[in-house]
């Protein structure tokens, strides 16, 4: 496939992923607003969660992370593709770029699993309302303070330095081989989660 065609496939693929994720979130929000009790089968009820509730919450988190975080990764994905064209002349740079994106999204899926478990724990402890808001002013305040303190930590600063300079990240973290792009995408995703 010509380089221009590859570029169109990447742009179209990224746009499709982002638009589909946002379309699902808009659908979810609209459905929630239209129900009488503010809940829908796509959101867990206030009773104990079952497998379906947990699975749907996980899907919601994954789709939300894809919708919000993929646009912020577009510059590094396109930069990866440019470097990959030079590195993998005889191979298909599209598949390498896809593996890089997959690694990035795998990291956010891991974050989504953690967020689902945290939400489940807060739900089980009756610290969330039916609309997934904090039922405890102390919890809300503690989370706000913790987020503020984290902004001042060296870990946050280190993660930001990697995300602000995607070329530096790619040059320092470059991996060859079939799994190299996947590992690079996962590592870039970890820095983004840290931000």
Walkthrough of the structure:
The chain starts with a helix and ends with a helix. The longest helix is centred in the middle third of the chain and has 37 residues, at about 50-85. It has helices at about 5-35, 50-85, 95-125, 135-150, 155-165, 165-175, 180-195. It has one domain (about 5-195). Mean pLDDT is about 85; it is low at about 35-45. By secondary structure, it is an all-alpha fold.
Oligomer: single chain
In total, the number of strands is 0
Distance between the termini: 36 Å
Mean pLDDT over all positions: 87
Enumerate the spans where pLDDT stays under 50 for 5 or more consecutive residues.
36-43
| Rg from Cα | 19 Å
The number of domains is 1
Q: Specify the biggest β-sheet.
A: none
Shape: globular
- The proportion of residues in beta strands is under 5%
Helix content: over 70%
Q: SSE string, helix = H, strand = E? A: HHHHHHH
Coarse structural class: mainly alpha
* Continuous helix count: 7
């Amino acid at each position: 496939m010509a380089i221009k065609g590859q570029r169109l496939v990447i742009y179209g693929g990224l746009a499709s992923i982002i638009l589909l994720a946002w379309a699902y979130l808009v659908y979810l929000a609209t459905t929630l607003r239209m129900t009488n009790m503010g809940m829908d089968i796509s959101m867990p009820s206030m009773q104990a969660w079952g497998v379906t509730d947990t699975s749907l919450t996980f899907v919601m988190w994954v789709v939300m992370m894809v919708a919000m975080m993929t646009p912020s990764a577009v510059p590094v994905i396109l930069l990866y593709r440019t470097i990959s064209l030079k590195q993998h002349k005889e191979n298909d740079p599209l598949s390498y770029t896809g593996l890089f994106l997959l690694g990035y999204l795998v990291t956010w899926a891991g974050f989504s699993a953690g967020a689902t478990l945290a939400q489940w724990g807060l739900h089980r402890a009756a610290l969330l309302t039916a609309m997934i808001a904090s039922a405890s002013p102390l919890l809300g305040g503690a989370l706000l303070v913790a987020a503020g303190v984290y902004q001042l930590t060296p870990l946050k600063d280190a993660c930001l330095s990697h995300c602000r300079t995607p070329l530096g990240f790619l040059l320092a973290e470059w991996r060859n081989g079939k799994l190299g792009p996947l590992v690079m995408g996962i590592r870039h995703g970890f820095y983004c989660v840290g931000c």
